[in-house]
């Protein structure tokens, strides 16, 4: 069995002075889900070298068992990852364009698309090379939409699956792509025997695109697997000493007796961190009684900083936090505590002490934070959840639902969350934790694999 994804389970940082390589776990839902397969499963995980550290690791032959990192030319990777995957396909699936001025599909786009094809071909060839006769291969995400079709041509004997960790765009939005590119993406995906999505909504959106643009799914099956949180791991990890230390530090920053509205995200355009802060400011404005009694703890970890729009967004998050603090802060109260350095133990600490978790993405494949918080919460936590997060399909009943664009309604939802009676909040948290852990990562992966193995192949 083989897995293919752009980001692998580890990435390496190179110390330019000492030449030392240090390994770090990759971030995001994909790595969280797939890490459950572990090195003992006999699987091979094919991923791309992402930076200089990774490339150096490949050259030195450093690596983990069961992982093959592809040393794809850095410029080709940059065009494919930054240019196409993250600036076009990600934007299409998350509805992120400011359409009066973008997207513009020009000669530069076409040049980058050739790199995207080359990068997909490198994966298809590596998989074709590594896979045993009749093996199952599960390709991950929008970075690798062309791989199933390419691999099918190279190795008709394989069972090929593809899983999307993102939403899928509605037909009208998807059709912004040039016609030939839209068709190539769909036909590439339909090279798979089976396509997996995180929710029924994204699966239906894909099917609608296939119906509208390429005459339907053909023999490809579509299934839904809602990745859940890993309760055992999270509960054990969140009770280690380093998390306790960070809780004490955070409590110091928040102040005794104050409530905490927590959010933890990559600094990602779709996560809607700015409107979250605007809603918090609206709360302080509309209900002055909350001033000095609540703190917005926002963790916004760096992501995709090669893209100017992400750097600008990161700066805007920081600017707005500063603005709110100077507008409302008092000597003993910092209204927004913003941390931008990725620290998993500190995230768990914030999960444990949160009174309210704010998860308000514009659009999100699933959102694992919404699932993780209720699992580790010490005393119950109210979840304010965007109806546009995939997780809403499973958690909506026990959350306070918000329209992510409506900051006034979000401010109201925050007030409602902050005033929920403790027993009610504990009851909701219990049900949220049960729903959130219904399909833990290992089972999520095995379900996909079994479903793929039971799918009649489209090969000869
Ligand atoms: O889990 C969803 C996802 O988009 C993955 O596809 C991706 O690997 C992850 O989030 C993080 O993004 P990136 O790999 O670009 O840092």
Principal-axes geometry comes out as globular
Number of domain modules: 2
Give a quick account of the main beta sheet: strands, pairing sense, barrel closure. 7 strands, parallel
What class do helices, strands and sheet pairing give? alpha/beta
Mean pLDDT level? 95
Number of strands: 15
Poorly predicted sequence stretches spanning 5 or more consecutive residues? none
The level 1 CATH classification of the largest domain is Alpha Beta
CATH structural architecture of the largest domain: 3-Layer(aba) Sandwich
What would you give as the CATH superfamily of the largest domain?
Answer: Glycogen Phosphorylase B
InterPro entries: Glyco_trans_20
Protein name: Trehalose-6-phosphate synthase
Pfam family, one: Glyco_transf_20
Family: Belongs to the glycosyltransferase 20 family.
Model description:
- This is Trehalose-6-phosphate synthase.
- GO terms for molecular function: alpha,alpha-trehalose-phosphate synthase (UDP-forming) activity; trehalose-phosphatase activity.
- Belongs to the glycosyltransferase 20 family.
- This protein has a 7-stranded parallel beta sheet with strand order 5-4-1-6-7-8-9, with helices on both faces. It has a 6-stranded parallel beta sheet with strand order 12-11-10-13-14-15, sandwiched between helices. A two-stranded antiparallel sheet has the order 2-3.
- The protein starts with a strand and ends in a 6-residue tail after the last helix.
- The chain is α/β, with parallel strands linked by helices and 460 residues long.
- Helices cover 47% and strands 16% of the residues.
- The chain folds into 2 domains: 238 residues, Glycogen Phosphorylase B (Rossmann fold), CATH 3.40.50.2000; 207 residues, Glycogen Phosphorylase B (Rossmann fold, 3-Layer(aba) Sandwich).
- The protein binds 6-O-phosphono-beta-D-fructofuranose.
């Amino acid at each position: 069995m083989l897995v293919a994804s752009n980001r692998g389970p580890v990435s390496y940082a190179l110390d330019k002075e000492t030449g030392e390589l240090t390994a770090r776990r990759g971030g995001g839902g994909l790595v969280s889900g797939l890490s459950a397969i572990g090195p003992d499963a006999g699987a091979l995980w094919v991923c791309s070298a992402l930076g200089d550290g990774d490339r150096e690791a490949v050259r030195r032959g450093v690596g983990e068992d069961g992982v093959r990192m592809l040393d794809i030319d850095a410029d080709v990777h940059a065009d494919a990852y930054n240019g196409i995957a993250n600036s076009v396909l990600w934007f299409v699936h998350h509805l992120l364009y400011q359409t009066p001025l973008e997207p513009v599909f020009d000669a530069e786009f076409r040049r980058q698309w050739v790199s995207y094809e080359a990068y997909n071909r490198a994966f298809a060839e590596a998989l074709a090379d590594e896979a045993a006769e009749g093996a199952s291969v599960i390709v991950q995400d929008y970075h690798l939409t062309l791989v199933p079709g390419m691999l099918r041509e190279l190795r008709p004997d394989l069972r090929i699956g593809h899983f999307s960790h993102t939403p899928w765009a509605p037909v009208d939005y998807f059709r912004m792509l040039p016609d030939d590119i839209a068709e190539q993406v769909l036909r590439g995906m339909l090279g798979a025997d089976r396509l997996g999505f995180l929710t029924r909504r994204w699966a239906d959106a894909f099917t609608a695109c296939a119906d509208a643009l390429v005459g339907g799914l053909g023999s490809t099956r579509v299934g839904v697997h809602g990745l859940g949180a890993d309760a055992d791991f999270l509960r054990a990890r969140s009770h280690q000493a380093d998390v306790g230390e960070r809780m004490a530090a955070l409590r110091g920053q928040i102040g005794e007796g104050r409530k905490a509205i927590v959010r933890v995200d990559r600094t990602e355009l779709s996560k809607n961190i700015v409107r979250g802060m605007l809603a918090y400011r609206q709360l302080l404005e509309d209900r002055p009684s909350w001033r000095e009694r609540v703190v917005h703890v926002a963790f916004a970890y760096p992501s995709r900083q090669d893209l100017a729009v992400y750097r600008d967004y990161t700066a805007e998050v920081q600017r707005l936090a500063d603005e709110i603090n100077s507008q409302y802060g008092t000597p003993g109260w910092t209204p927004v505590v913003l941390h931008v350095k990725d620290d998993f133990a500190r995230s768990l600490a914030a999960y444990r002490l949160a009174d309210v978790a704010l998860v308000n993405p514009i659009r999100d494949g699933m959102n694992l934070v919404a699932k993780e918080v209720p699992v580790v919460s010490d005393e119950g936590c109210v979840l304010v959840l965007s109806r546009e997060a995939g997780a809403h399909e499973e958690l909506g009943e026990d959350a306070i639902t918000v329209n992510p664009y409506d900051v006034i309604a979000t401010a109201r939802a925050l007030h409602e969350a902050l005033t929920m009676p403790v027993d009610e909040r504990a009851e909701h948290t219990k049900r949220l934790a049960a729903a959130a852990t219904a399909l833990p990562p290992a089972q999520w992966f095995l379900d996909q694999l079994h479903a793929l193995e039971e799918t009649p192949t489209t090969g000869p």
